[in-house]
Structure prediction request, 478 residues.
Amino acid sequence: MAKNYRLGDPNFYKISKLDVIVISLILLIAVYSMIWTSIQRQKSQGKKQAVIYLENNFLDKVILDKDKNIAILDGRMQAEVKMGKIRILTSDCAQKICVGTGFIQYVGQVIVCVPNKVLIEIKSEKKPFLDAVVY
Amino acid sequence: MRKRRISKKIKIAIGLIIGILICVFSIRNYNSYWFYLEKQTCFMMDTYVTIYAIGPEKITKPAVNSALDRMQLIDKKMNPINPESELYKFNAQGTPIRDAEILDLIRIALEVSAATEGAFDITAFPLSELWGFSRFSEEEPRLPADEEIKKTLKNIGYKHLILSDGKLEKDNKDVAIDLGGIAKGYAIEQAVKVLQSQGVTSALIDAGGDIYALGSKINKPWQVGIQAPRGEELLGYLEVKDLAVMGSGDYHRFFIKDGKRYHHIFNLKTGYPADEISGITVIHPNPVLADCLATALFAMGPKEGIEFAQSMKGLETIMITASGEVLSSTGLKNALKVIPKDE
Prediction:
């Protein structure tokens, strides 16, 4: 008749081959998950992006990894991406406050063109360090 | 025998895993319920306004909606180019202002004008219009002739305004007012009241780079970056809680002519832009005062501005002079922290 092991029974703590295989598998999966999560986090941390909104609606998303120029509103505004930063180069608005803002690069920083109702915000999948920027 | 041992172990293992999963799931649910982040943005007051509120969605969502609605109502009421507004009628036809809410705000504006000897003045509107820096201007800013500036200065000065018997009048028909230098602070103050009345205890209002931090962000203060007036870097960041942090500078509305920078904050004695400071940050628990004092301290210049800040309880400032020197009031010494390089 089979012996019924209980938690306090020393035999319960004996490790069989199958136990070793199961424990090894769990450890392997755990370590692999940690490494994979870490790699994914590092990848996403490097990818800052500028999200462009028109009247609060999503218009475009620009990854700030390569230098380039972007036309907004059929060229009425021109944005420049350079060394992980973005600025408005030209705009058809009167005050040019958006042009005067210059480059932005920190998560949470924004460029706003009120006459054109355009807002550009730096975003990242990484948790932002700053909650807002006073300017 | 082995089967039974394994079966028992597996049962315990499965039980443990289920227990852990329930714990993890409960913690996630708890966090997403209590620390839900509601974020809404609107264009108003010549800029964008974003409100972030942390708390249960059923509380934060309607509260942020109401706060933004309240701000939009204030924006409409305080708009001097809206023909229906009392401000428009006051400026264009001299009709006395009788709206109690507007008069309360004008009373504060006049007190700040008196305290700062006119460095902040809501009657500067015609000068802003002349230079093309008014937020309502559809023309590009320009350098006016000396004669134009002198002529316009005759109509500027808070002493032209008479506030008595529940109405505001003026002693000169060409005097015009704009509450743009104080209305944003007032709108923020009102939004905070709306949020608090609806049970929000943690929120951040960002009105075009003018901030109010309500409570703290879960268990730590809100972290607010400070823009450097030149270049792309930030000066650093401050940790704030239940404070307004307002900025002003010569880099918002400006033009450069013959190598000289002309901007929208004026020395009202000369009618030309104040040129001793390039950027300022003002901190005060009251957003209305923080808003108008950011302009006033900028116009006063570094020496007078710092002295004024030191003399007023709760008021702190960081200034960057035209030569690039960073000055701050005593309470902010060592408060500005360095942003980590990888941010």
Q: What stands out?
A: Chain B touches chain A through 52 residues (CB under 8 Å). DSSP finds nine helices and 16 strands in chain B. The mean pLDDT of chain B is 92.
